Amino acid sequence: MNINATLIGQSIAFLVFVIITMKYVWPPIMAALEERKQKIADGLAAAERGKHEQELAEKRATEVIAEAKAQAQEIISKADKRASEIVEEAKDNARAEGERLLTAANAEIEQEVNRAKEGLRSQVASLAVAGAGRVLSKEIDSKAHDDMLKDLVAQI
Amino acid sequence: MAGTSTEYIKHHLTNMTYGQKADGSWGFAQSAQEAADMGFWSFHVDTLGWSVFLGLVFLFVFRRVAASIAKQDVNAAPSGMQNFVEWVIEFIDDSVRGSFSGKNPVVAPLALTVFFWILLMNFMDLVPVDWIPALAGQIGEAYFGVPAEHVYFKVVPTTDINATMGLALGVFWLILYYSVKMKGVGGFIGELTLHPFPPKAIITIPFNLFLEGVSLISKPVSLALRLFGNLYAGEMIFILIAIMFGGGYALAATAGGLQLLWALFHILIIFLQAFIFMTLTIVYLDMAHQTDH
User: Fold this and answer.
1) How many other β-carbons are positioned within 10 Å of the β-carbon of residue B97?
2) What does the pLDDT look like over B36-51, one tens digit per residue?
3) What ipTM goes with this model?
4) How many angstroms separate the CA atoms of B29 and B48, rounded?
5) At what angle do helices A26-136 and B45-71 cross, to 10 degrees?
6) Which residue, among A130, A152, A127, has the nearest Cα to A140 in the 3D structure?
7) B274 interfacial to chain A (CB closer than 8 Å)
8) Which has the higher per-residue pLDDT, B1 or A96?
């Protein structure tokens, strides 16, 4: 166990190794590790942000759905109201129309009755004239008795 | 096994030393005595070779990942060696963040180098003690004409005090450099002389200098000796267990069990010592950066 110049050689080798490690080994590896660490941190932050955004979006979606539901409800109730209104209106219209038709029919019927009465009257008059003619066995000058016949018709 | 147990142990504890021999020529020491006689200007070729090789292994593995990671898509999942490297880097980065309060781009790479290099060097301790030295002996005898028992080869660089002291001194220079850089020369001298006793009398200054000097010097010394002592002792026990293999079937079986147990336990020491060396390096540098004295 002798102390000798090996000591110096060893010191020099040591310092050379340290310098090489310092220049060519440590910095690139450390830089890569830092970069990876940064990337992982960024990734985690992005994931956190994404989660947060998702929560917000979910909340927003619930709000939108609730709003839409309310709107739909409103539309339905409006539509209901409108429908009942339309039904009412239609009913009114129908009623009015019915009444109108009824009145028209009544008028027509009355007209028809009048016309029939008129016809009957004239027929009765002519029948009566014919009857009377036969009864009297004597031709009655229809022209001579026209005034009388007309008077008779007006009395029926 | 050649020679006695003492010779075996001594053989295992001697480094392959290159230096100037007694006759003035340069070459490898043929004995422990000759290695010791070479004085300061000699080199432990095995220690330097293995530590540089392991350091290059470390750099190769980490640099390959560093090169590929830069080109890689950020979204790609890391796999294989990259996972391991990233895990080590993050472990070191956490340790540095935990112990080092200042900002200095040198400290973390330094801690990584210290930790992983020492870890690899320590791991050589788990290779059975005779494998590589025996191989080296065979190669020496076959190709260099040196008798195998004269080929010394220590595989674990951290069981050589030169290696651990070299590391500790490297850290020590950094402590001095950053102390001066952060506090200025005056501030550093003030730190060494005006604490722990306030300078009411002139006598406290040399006293303070002595106390602070001891605590300063003790940093690299304790770093070096702790690592060296732990690994040297571990290696020693592996060698002693290895001797038992030559003592008959019963002892060999016991030795096998012991070696397994000690190796398992030693894994803990390997990691722990590398970690302690790294942590203390960070702490010492943190102290060097403290300016609030």
Assistant:
1) 11
2) 888 888 889 999 999 9
3) 0.88
4) 16
5) 20
6) A130
7) no
8) A96
Spatial separation of the C-alpha atoms in residues B79 and B74, rounded to whole Å: 13
pLDDT digits (tens, 9 = 90+) for B137-182: 888 888 887 887 788 888 899 999 999 999 999 999 999 999 999 8
For chain B, how are helix, strand and coil distributed in percent, rounded to 5? 75, 5, 25
CA dist A125 and B111 (Å) reads: 148
| Tokens, residue A21 | 């490690």
- CA–CA distance, B17 with B28 (Å, rounded to integer): 6
Tokens of B287: 């102290």
Number of domains in chain B: 1
Range of the domain at B150: 5-289
Mean residue pLDDT across chain B: 88
Cβ-Cβ contacts under 8 Å between A and B: the total is 132
pTM of the model: 0.76
Contacting residues for B156 by C-beta, under 8 A, at least 6 apart = B50, B121, B122, B124, B125, B231, B235
Q: pLDDT digit string (tens) for B107-148? A: 999 999 999 999 999 999 998 888 888 888 888 888 887 887
Cβ B166–A39 below 8 Å, yes or no?
no
Cα A17 to Cα A28: distance, rounded to the nearest angstrom: 16
Chain A residue whose CA is closest to B91: A30
User: What token pair was written down for B264?
Assistant: 């398992």
Q: Within 13 Å and on the Cβ side, how many CA atoms surround B242?
A: 21
Provide the residue type at B213 as one letter.
G
Residues of B in contact with A8 (CB under 8 A): 166
Query: Is B223 in CB contact (< 8 Å) with chain A?
Result: no
Tokens 């030295």 label which residue? B133
The answer to whether residue A3 neighbours chain B at the CB level (below 8 Å) is yes
- How is residue A155 written in tokens? 């009395």
How far separated are the first and last CA of chain A, in Å rounded? Answer: 171
Instruction: For residue A3, give both structure tokens.
Output: 């102390």
Q: Which of A2, A7, A30 sits opposite B36 (nearest CB)?
A: A2
* Percentage of chain B modeled with pLDDT above 90: 47
